[in-house]
Fold this protein.
Amino acid sequence: MKFLTCAAKDLRLFTRDRTGLFFTFLFPFLLIGIFGLIFGAGYRLPDLHVAQEDNGQLANLYVSTLENVFKIHKVENAEAAEQNVRNGLAVVGLVIPENFSRGGKVRLFYDPAKGDIAISMKATIESVTQRFWAGGESPVESQSVVGREIHAMQHFVPGWSIMFILMTAGIGIASTIVVERKSGAFKRNLLAPIRRGSFLGGHVFSAFVIGCLQLAVYFAFGILVFGMPVYGSPLLVALIGALVVFFGVGLGLLVSSFARTTDAASSAVWAVIMPMSALGGLWWAKEMMPAWMQSISNVLPTTHAMDSFRAVIMRGEGLAAIAPSLAVLAGFTIVVLALALKLFRWEE
């Protein structure tokens, strides 16, 4: 029965390993819970903004059929439907023309920056509309509000870049500080002819440089290997990336203030970044989530970072268009850095 003794020893060690317990039980439950809340009640399509210019019997029947699939949001006219899509208030806008009952085609405005959710809504609308159409050609005239070709990598590169930069910056600086504090390196360096601010600043700057290199490598890979177009200013892309890196560094500093081991530091960063990635639209369009989850998503820094990247990369927007999102991202960064510096400990 010696194997039982060995097994009991392993189990005791496992129960004392907080990091192991976190990744074995809590972390999977966290992700399962997020996926369950988003997809557990079935696939949810965003509201369809409709400008109904034809109030005839056939047009009303058409709208009633669409209501079996979408939640319809009525708007005043075609201009409003298009503008709502351009402003990000809707994924798809549909215009039912005055001559719909006499065989007129419907007009559809969509935002390709929304990825698969826009494609799915377009396909569903075309399928429903085909039932009311006697002609042989498509009954839907689709128009992208972006006016440019959208590349799949314009979704993937920014999303995964944000997630991995935040994880690398956060875990990297948090683990480094925990090791140096635990080993007494911080205490010894306090005796050296160097200011505390310079010593800590060196750690922050090195983490920032690594994060910027990550951003450059990820985007270069997407551009050179997959031909990803960037329609906006590369300087704005760099500015957004710099704020993301600083936020990750600040998060790592904050985590290092209470983490006593490198395992605890990495677990804490993972526990923050993964939910923020899922809810922030880095993995899928946030419009797929329930309304209350979208409300949470709208205040997360990851959401504003992703929205800013997409606006610049896909739409070619300038600084004025992304300024509100940059302000939110900068605000989170300042708050996290301020808390980290206030709570920072030089000794165990």
User: Anything to note?
Assistant: The chain is about 65% helix and 5% strand. Residues 153-183 form the longest helix (31 residues). Strands lie at 48-52, 72-74, 92-96, 106-110, 140-144. Residues 166 and 247 are 7 Å apart (CA to CA).
